[in-house]
User: What shape does this take?
Amino acid sequence: MKIILGLLIIAVGAFCQSSSYVPINKVKQWSWESYWLVQGIFAWLVFPLLGAILAVPSGESLFGMFAANPKASLLTVLFGMLWGVGGLTFGLSMRYLGVALGQSLALGTCAGLGAILGPVFTGHAHDLTSSVIIGVVVTLVGIAIIGVAGAMKSAALPEEEKKKAVKDFNFPKGIAVALLAGFMSACFNIGLSFGEPLSWAATPEIFKSLPATLLVTFGGFLTNAGYCLFQNGRNKTWGDYGKKALWGNNLLFCILAGLLWYSQFFGLSLGKGFLAESPALITFSWCILMALNVVFSNVWGILLKEWKGVSRATVAVLVSGLAVLIFSTFLPQLI
Assistant: This one.
């Protein structure tokens, strides 16, 4: 029962993350770099800090613990900065491919590499049991099937229909950007792996990874903030922040987007606390989160009519890919 509850919590977090780009569409008259920076303050700083505070026992402090573990802290921030590059290109993948296909390809690459490289980089390759490896392979197969559906959609739809669903649709450029985004985004789980020592014995299991999550997202914030401020200067969009009449609306939706985005990692930490009885699922939990992110992102893609007008065969391929992904989340426990 605990395992099912843990998976459900991770699923709720995945649903929230996949929904985080919906509020962004409500932001008015701000350039990409302006709203990306503002929502990032909440997604990568404010909410991760609030989450990390839950892990601090009485009489302890986050910064004291980070200072006592400088190597682990610095490596966690470093891989967070690398993950930040993935976050930047992640947004571009959806710009060129849409929410469904863009997230599917980027998160697929992120899922496989993150699940495998995290234990490898930290000297815990022995955690990669056969059930975990099989689960990763099945997850990648499911995402590849969805990629085939995306290619079928690209080949079948007239250019004007593609542009209606995704304004800047560009399949070749989108594929390249999505693969880069997925590779760099895998650094998040590597950062979490290096950050495993950053907790206290008295911290409840459900909150154990939240201090490390804060450092990873802080590193990502540094990368993203630097790029966004550079783009503000390059595109002369500093005036966005001076549009006082828009702040009420835009700040609200940026906060909502940030909260929804962070929910995936808050849910991952809580969910892993209920998976302690299954070491394989603990190791595979990153892949579970990414697989469910792909499932829910495609549900949003359907709701946003990104798959409107495609053939029944394309829909069948898409649904079969989603079914494989859902099955993969339980697979390591079944083997």
Summary: Residues 13 and 226 are 28 Å apart (CA to CA). The chain has a mean pLDDT of 85.
